[in-house]
Model the fold of this input.
Amino acid sequence: MWRHIGVSGILPDVAHPMNSPQWLDRLHARAQQAPAMPREPLLLGRAECGSIDVTLAERLSAAGLPLQRGGHGWLLQGDADTSLAAIAHWLHAHDAASRWRDELMPVTDTQGALRAVIERCAVRPLGITTFAVHLVGWTSAGAVWAQQRALDKATDPGQWDTLMGGLASARETTVQTLERETWEEAGLRVGELNDVAAMGRITVRRPVPDGYMVEHIDMFEACVPDGLVPVNQDGEVQGFDCIDAPALIARLQADEFTLEASLILAHWLARRGVK
Done:
């Protein structure tokens, strides 16, 4: 049955597993990487809300965008939403961001307070923290449903992922994101699933092709009843596979899965006592 989970602040961070095998230690190291190029804080007033490559910041400022060096970083000028929208359009027009999504993401400070919103394509160039939800779908036989990411995805195309993984938009709760993404990516309704439960939160910090990723990931698990088969609805999934535990471990160790999915699935396996 569906256990209702609240919006924020109640999912505890997951500690680094004790006695991790070497491959899992390497995953955790990859999940906490410094930026590839020097970055400085992106500031809304006195609040730090992201980070930006110094060269890119100088380009934006020289182009007349509402961004100026100030304090210990780069200070947004004027109304935050308006200024961030102008920067997002410039980044898109100059091929300095991923494809335009018409999807607004939250811009939060280091305390998690909402400060503004921004077009999704601009979050990585500006080092803005994103909030994701992932679902591990398991079967009564102990196998796991996994999806292969579409070949045209901007990040990790063609790699394997959890049953569902997606970003929360600016005005969604965690539960709303879970429900929406489970339908869009897997064609499943959360109400159809059994034993839905939160598994905690992990945070990933790493360079990505269009900037720097800082992402809080709330993890969930659920049993997919026998006879239910995931079917993608939004075109972002290449296909699905149902994988038993030994094959899953082998494929994780062969790096067939994204970094985030590998960490989440390894955590799920440990919760289940699978070695």
Q: What stands out?
A: Confidence is low (pLDDT under 50) at residues 1-19.
